[in-house]
Amino acid sequence: MKRRALLAAFAVLSAAVLPGGAWSAEYPNRVIKIIVPFAPGGGTDVIARIFSAFMANHLKQNVIIENRPGAAGLIGAGDVAKSRPDGYTLLFTPQNTITIAPYLDHPISYKPDKDLIPIAMVAEQPIIFAANDKLPVKDLDEFVRFAKSHPGKFNYGSPGLSTELNLTVEILKQRAGINIVHIGYRGGAPAINALLRNDIQMLPVVPSSIGPFIKSGKVKALATTAPRRLSEFPDIPTTKEQGYPEVNIVPWWGVFVPAGTPQAVIDSLQSAVSALLKNSKYREKLEAMSVEPTAILSRPFSKMLADQTKRWGEVIKKAGLRLQ
């Protein structure tokens, strides 16, 4: 009996410290950390904080945000890929760290399709092309004509060369035949500040970040990449309306965990994400910023990642870009 009791105690102890088993059934039993690989105040950070607050309420556990900006999000994503696969370190990221990273000209510290497991795509939001209010243009068509008459004289910003925001402008440059200079920043918030100072004249940015500045008249909105006009900003024409249907990128955000995370933990996180989609307060908070909440889980999300990775490769090759 004593030997049997010792074996039972050992089994319980093993389950408590090893992945899977009874350990994962108790998940979560301590603070969950979500890594945001961009600076505070940008679109990714704003959406991640809303997501984390509702996740904390659903999981009945503290969920904290830790910003680790740098290298267009690659530093934070790499840190998560190398973290302990126990479900307590998550990555909240836009697509560039996953679908664009494989096309960089320099080695990165992780392989997106091998070192990170997709939990779910949780939100998507179109891009707004915003301009400094001193620029004498009112829409994208006028901006293109103005840029053509002043080649190389205007700057545009983004959170980094290897982000979908930057590549969307590169697609526009190719289609419109304009020469504007890229300047990279460590996140959306620093780039917006640069736009307000007129260090850059145009910025591709999501509505959740730039919306208040549009409403206050501090910046001009030239176009949106959405398939239709935004309900919050019905006066902003789409890129398609202005003759650029190919410039139709709609950024998304997803949640990932390190490879090796127990399936039971993945299931718990996916269940929580699915529950959030049914939470009316959560939906209202995101939709008020023109963000569409979603819950595309692992299998369909993985296929989408593979398809988009291939598409970005074709875009980058056709544009002749070298991503650093």
Short structural description:
This protein is α/β, with parallel strands linked by helices.
Keyword list:
324 residues; disordered N terminus; 3-stranded antiparallel β-sheet; alpha/beta; 13 helices; single chain; 6-stranded mixed β-sheet; globular
Polypeptide structure, described:
The protein is α/β, with parallel strands linked by helices and 324 residues long. Helix content is 44%, strand content 19%. The strands form 3 sheets. It has a 6-stranded mixed β-sheet, sandwiched between helices. The protein has a 3-stranded antiparallel β-sheet with strand order 8-5-9, sandwiched between helices. A two-stranded parallel ribbon has the order 6-7. α3 links the parallel β1 and β2 (63-67). α3 (43-59) packs across α11. The radius of gyration is 21 Å and the shape is globular. Mean pLDDT is 89; it is low at 1-24.
